[in-house]
């Protein structure tokens, strides 16, 4: 879950907190390899606020992820039947520019967006998914979707920043937004070439010509780049036309995963259609999960590899989207045991991501490895307007359990300041 996403979990990782950090690491790695100039992907329209705005979730600096984490928090609450505080919804809606776009954060939402405002498809697409789910924001959603369509690249995909080359993660989160807004992604075509979002997305998949165990994986952006688990999880979910919220397939649903089938000498670029591409991506994820003890590893350049909680969560959602019950169950158990400390450290977007994992797998988010994710999420922001009936008896505990959620603070700001963000100016840019 984003911008998903990649988020910060002990290292990089749809959509969520780690989503941003993972994407930053991915783009940074590409910069180091190619020596290309880079532009930041976690764009903010203004500097850090001296005082946190009323209604905002999380207690850390929202400069690079304010809209993203707010969108995930509100969406997760809505998914479990919690009606968010009016102030929280108002804050998110107030971040929108007149043309429908969003940036990472605007300290002065009353000030009109201008040519210097760094509009970003990732927070825009995240906000669309949240506002569409909450209802009552039809005009805002329509304007945001219109803006997203206006910055679609000729290849059918999107970059974080308009005018930059497409990447798998940004294309994926926009597909989720289109679906949430009631659009048919396959019908949204580029002005030049008539390419669909799926056409753009599938260009990042590694096919039968790939050597080693990378077949079926998606790269973040660059042709010839290494397989990227973050991009793969995001793309496998999006290729099925799904966004952050994936409805559970039902009790006992267990469709076998079908990895990319390559015959000797077959050099086909990849899957023929989105459904096959999603299956191939899931096949890659399953292989990586099994290889690493049912979790994925971080890929922060120069850092020692370690478990990546957010990316593992994204992978579980991708597998659940394909009704791969058995394949999702093992990493889900790992998450239930290992995610509590990460979420407490990372804040609302991380709690929201885990709530959405629980929803996708039919797991109780109020007892996720011994943690009440709903209460913990609620405690990171303004008190909800109305809790689900089953939460009412625990309302006081939810309120007192707060203070858990400072949002991740990583070196992403420094990377952005140095011009090494998520987007590559040559071929741009995680996903919590």
Describe the overall structure.
Helix content is 42%, strand content 3%. It has helices at 17-34, 66-79, 86-94, 121-134, 138-150, 168-180, 197-202, 229-238, 274-291, 309-321, 325-346, 348-361, 373-378, 395-400, 412-417, and strands at 8-9, 11-12, 38-39, 296-297, 307-308, 423-424. The strands form three sheets. It has a two-stranded antiparallel ribbon. A two-stranded antiparallel ribbon has the order 3-6. Strands 4-5 form a two-stranded antiparallel sheet. The radius of gyration is 19 Å and the shape is globular. The chain starts with 7 loop residues before the first strand and ends in an 8-residue tail after the last strand.
Structural class computed from helices and strand pairing: mainly alpha
* Average of per-residue pLDDT values: 82
Largest sheet: 2 strands, antiparallel
Q: Distance N terminus to C terminus? A: 6 Å
Kindly estimate the percentage of residues that lie in beta strands according to DSSP.
under 5%
Number of strands: 6
Low-confidence stretches: 1-18, 24-41, 394-432
Radius of gyration: 19 Å
Q: Give helix and strand order, one letter per element, not per position.
A: EEHEHHHHHHHHEEHHHHHHE
Key features?
3% strand; disordered C terminus; 15 helices; disordered N terminus; mainly alpha; 432 residues; two-stranded antiparallel ribbon
Short synopsis of the structure:
By secondary structure, the chain is an all-alpha fold. 42% of the residues lie in helices and 3% in strands.
Show the helix and strand layout.
Elements: E1 8-9, E2 11-12, H1 17-34, E3 38-39, H2 66-79, H3 86-94, H4 121-134, H5 138-150, H6 168-180, H7 197-202, H8 229-238, H9 274-291, E4 296-297, E5 307-308, H10 309-321, H11 325-346, H12 348-361, H13 373-378, H14 395-400, H15 412-417, E6 423-424
Antiparallel strand pairs: 1-2, 3-6, 4-5
